[in-house]
Specification:
With about 300 residues, the protein is of the alpha/beta class. The protein is built from 9 helices and 9 strands. The structure holds N-carbamoyl-L-aspartate (NCD).
Length: about 300
């Protein structure tokens, strides 16, 4: 029995709850590849995206449609009543009466939690500013489970650990699996102290470095992220850190044979195209796993059996 109404933050999840979702995703994977289903027939998913998205939006839509459900879309905030000054709370109150479940992406941290307070339908957080992105984490965990191993994992989180919501969510989830976490970032983009201290309280072995070379030979997973240009208050600060890390095929010569490289995408210049053809690349497979995982999340919050 899945008891979560809203999916807001990985901090709210137990390992048992995550395992239910990952197991469900495995069960639904054949439908992600086109096998027919009407598990969610008659259900409507509303997609409210106040920030750009490709994978998250399209994979939620695909997941819903492949399970026989339907979607309604706010095309862009500019074309909706947000541009007339409507508050997010009012929009949510109304849209949650139209749809059975609402997926929300917004630039403000805490927006999904606020939406859940006023919504009559389940809210799924698809990213709240630099806060959290729980369904990305669930598909990351699914990828690690399928392509590597979740127990006794050694993982490096690389890039923008300050503003990157995917790594904030993932770090919390990994703490439940006893992972050893290496944080690799420029000084200016370190993981927030609050998260590091939460991880240590949860017994996680966390280390920090600015050098990629310190981790590349011993980790099972390299989780690479984009520097979140849009979150920098000052563009000149972005220029100082742009292009700090760049994974190239030659750099991987010391990596473990079965080391995998993940990235939530989009990538800008953090991973060279010549890495795509190496045995380590898993980021496109990871993006595909977004479909079965989001199918699982939708069917569990909609209590479809
Ligand atoms: C990420 C996001 O939006 O946080 N993208 C995604 O959902 N796959 C990562 C990013 O934008 O860098």
């Amino acid at each position: 029995m899945f008891t979560k109404k809203h999916i807001i933050s990985m901090r709210d999840f137990s390992k048992a709850e995550i395992d239910v979702i990952l197991k469900k995703a495995e069960e639904l994977e054949p439908f992600a590849k086109g096998k027919k289903s009407n598990l969610l027939a008659g259900k409507i998913l509303a997609l409210l995206f106040y920030e750009p998205s490709t994978r998250t939006r399209l994979s939620f839509e695909t997941a819903m449609k492949r399970l026989g459900g339907e979607t309604i879309n706010m095309i862009s905030p500019e074309a909706s009543s947000a541009s007339k000054g409507e508050t997010l709370a009012d929009t949510i109150r109304v849209v949650s009466e139209y749809a059975d479940v609402v997926v929300l992406r917004h630039s403000k941290e805490g927006s999904a939690r606020m939406a859940a307070d006023v919504s009559s339908a389940p809210i799924i957080n698809a990213g709240d500013g630099a806060g959290h992105h729980p369904t990305q984490t669930l598909l990351d965990l699914y990828t690690i489970k399928r392509e590597s191993h979740l127990e006794n994992l050694s993982i490096a989180l690389i890039g923008d650990l300050k503003y990157g919501r995917t790594v904030h969510s993932l770090a919390y989830a990994l703490s439940l699996y006893g992972a050893k976490i290496s944080l690799v970032s420029p000084e200016q983009l370190k993981m927030p102290d609050e998260i590091k201290s939460d991880l240590r309280k949860r017994g996680v072995d966390v280390s920090e470095t600015t050098k990629l070379e310190d981790v590349i030979s011993h980790v099972d997973v390299l989780y690479v992220t984009r520097i979140q240009k849009e979150r920098f208050p000052d563009p000149s600060e972005y220029q100082k850190v742009a292009g700090t890390y760049r994974i190239s095929a030659p750099l991987l010569k010391d990596a473990k044979d079965d080391m995998i490289i993940m990235h939530p995408l989009p990538r800008v210049d953090e991973i060279d195209a010549d890495v795509d053809a190496t045995k380590h690349a898993r980021y496109f497979q990871q993006a595909f796993y977004g479909i079965p995982v989001r199918m699982a999340v939708l069917s569990l919050v909609l209590e479809a059996r």
